[in-house]
Write a structure and sequence with these properties.
By secondary structure, this protein is mainly alpha-helical. It is 42% helix and 6% strand.
């Protein structure tokens, strides 16, 4: 059975990379180290990190001791902030189906999809990066 709710690769990378950075807010982490820890493409992660920086969630420094760190404390960054930095505004009312078959009227699933969409948004909005301060401990990040 396929999943009803899916998160894009970019949003998934952003959420996981930011959770890693939240564990050591005062340390700079390179894209290479983060990509190795997450076992993902460095190139794809670099694009996502640029989006997060552009949205004001990350700071960056160039050079061998550089990298990325959170632009503000993890307690002030919600998962919704991260999601919207990569995906755009989370729609208030949207069908979760890839292709709407009912033209928005008389959905066979009733209001379940809208309710699930609302619950997911509420979870993202109410969950802060600080909630994942120990997430990094499961990964080998080395020094940089």
């Amino acid at each position: 059975m396929k999943q009803l709710l899916r998160v894009s690769e970019a949003a998934g990378l952003a959420l996981h990379a930011m959770a890693l950075l939240a564990g050591k807010e005062d340390q700079w982490r390179s894209t290479r180290r983060l990509a190795e820890a997450l076992q993902v493409s460095e190139r794809n992660l670099a694009r996502v990190m640029w989006q997060l920086k552009k949205s004001g969630l990350l700071e960056s420094v160039m050079g061998p001791r550089g990298g990325y760190q959170l632009a503000k404390p993890g307690a002030r960054i919600s998962l919704l902030d991260i999601y919207e930095a990569t995906e755009g505004r989370f729609p208030a009312h949207a069908c979760m189906l890839k292709k709407r078959a009912c033209a928005g009227k008389n959905c066979i699933l009733g209001d379940y999809l809208e309710m699930a969409n609302h619950q997911f948004r509420q979870y993202l909005a109410g969950t802060k990066l600080a909630d994942f301060k120990d997430f990094h401990k499961a990964f080998n990040l080395g020094r940089a």
